[in-house]
Amino acid sequence: MRVGIVVMAEPLTIDGSRPFRAGMLADALVDGGHAVTWWTSTFDHSHKRHRYPTHHTIQLRPGLELRMLHGPAYRRNVSLTRIRHNHSVARTLDREWRAQRPDLDLLFVCIPLHELAKVALQFGKRHRVPVVLDVRDPWPEVYLQLVPRTARPLLRAGLIGAFQMARKNFRLADAVVAVSESYLAWARRLGRRTANSWDRTFPLGYPAVMSHLPPPVAAPSRRPFVVAFVGTFGAGYDLETVVLAATRLAQQSPDVQFVLAGDGDDKARLRTLARAATNIDFPGWLSQDGVTDLLARAAVGLVAYRQSAVQSLPNKPFEYWAAGLPILSSLPGELARIIDHEGVGVNYRPGDPDSLAEAVKWLVEHEDERLIMARRALALFQEQFSAAKIYPELVRHLEKIAQSLGGRSGIAGVVP
After folding, report:
1. Mean pLDDT, the chain, integer
2. Three-class DSSP category at 248
3. What are the respective helix, strand and coil percentages of the chain, to the nearest 5?
4. Looking at residue 185, what is its pLDDT?
């Protein structure tokens, strides 16, 4: 099977990153004997810099080609220049495919970038190639969460074109997969899709890069109780609440240390807010080895999102669970239910520093319970959320779609 993957903003192993969803899927496809061409951008979304000054192609491994298309830079993830970048890369991709048609049996396209999904669906219809849309964020719905509730009707009206594109994309897709049940339900509602065997949920998962770590053990009494966050300082996260909670714990629990690893639009504001706190460390972006070292020292991982966040099952929980860490989470819905049902962390109220501070203090004071949660977290990851389990299953699903729908322009699961 010859598979095209279209994913723009995902970190790449050539950046020194561990493989994310497209990377894990690409490796699983190649390991299964398939050939993969991955289209992405020359622009490094995480570090806001171009990898190459023009289009560039790399053979990552036998059977896996990475084709990077050049587009204009942007400084903020949510901005007009980001939209300009998306449209530019989509036009380039369309021109490339029209000039020299790639020989493909299936296309796998990441949402949020509906501009690229539209190009892929047009290609699929012209050449009878099944197109699978993979929902990782409910765009453009996420834009509505960035403004006050009273302003959302006006913003929704301004985004009518984006919603129409998303609705049509989901309606025309041969299959929709998603990282969570709530995202899949959202895509089906928006695209007016009926239930069918091709639309399924496959969690993000995580590679077993932490497998060399020993089982969680009680920390020596003099060792700091490290609360770790690894990610982007951006619009969806609520690190202000984390900084305020840390400030309140500085005197009450002097052994607690917060390590906020990453970078992003809110970095300067957060550093200013934390200037009086002695228990917060901002190490910046860490290499994969640096992340592994941090999580090996940590007692708990932070999943800190705003009250208005639409995320359901993001990357962070799987990363922490893979390291044998319980989590402190502000997300309601699916993740909160997993935490409560499996006993793998503590939920706190979003936007409430006192709630987070109390949750941290409880974990500090109940070390035996924390260790039990840690062992459960590692077992849960190994049983349900390891990339070694998720992505071979996704590959088998894509094989069935290509075998059943390849060579025709039929549309699965659509309400006329």
Report:
1. 90
2. helix
3. 45, 20, 35
4. 94
Is residue 240 in a domain?
yes
Residues 367 and 378 occupy one common structural domain: yes
Return d(Cα 225, Cα 401) in angstroms, integer: 48
* Residue 163 counted as domain residue: yes
Residues 379 and 344 in one domain: yes
Whether residue 95 is found in the same domain as residue 176: yes
182 lies in a domain? Answer: yes
Query: Which amino acid does the sequence have at 371?
Result: L
Q: What is the CA radius of gyration of the chain?
A: 22
Q: Identify whether 298 is part of a domain.
A: yes
At 302, give phi and psi (nearest 5°): -100, 130
Give the pLDDT band (50/70/90) at residue 222.
Answer: low
**Same domain as 103, residue 23:** yes
Residue type, 65: E
Tens of pLDDT, residue by residue over 116-167, are: 999 999 999 999 999 999 999 888 877 777 777 888 888 888 888 888 999 9
Domain that holds residue 339: 225-385
Mean pLDDT score, 388-412: 83
* Phi (first) and psi of residue 189, to 5 degrees: -65, -50
Same domain, 13 and 76: yes
Which residue, chain included where needed, has tokens 């504001």? Answer: 269
Same domain, 393 and 324: no
User: Is the domain of 376 the same as that of 398?
Assistant: no
Q: b or e along 342-353 (b: 16 or more beta carbons within 10 Å of the residue's beta carbon)?
A: bebbbbbebbbb
* pLDDT tens by residue, 4-60: 999 998 999 998 888 999 999 999 999 999 999 999 999 998 889 999 999 999 999
Query: Total structural domains in the chain?
Result: 2
Q: By C-alpha distance, which of 266, 47, 282 is closest to 146?
A: 266
The pair phi, psi for residue 70, each rounded to 5°, is -85, 140
Q: What is the DSSP string of 276-338?
A: T-SSEE---S--HHHHHHHHHH-SEEEE-B-TT---SS-HHHHHHHHTT--EEE---THHHHH
Alpha carbon distance 413, 62 (integer Å): 35
CATH number at residue 348: 3.40.50.2000
pLDDT at 382 over 50: yes
* 275 and 176 co-located in one domain: no
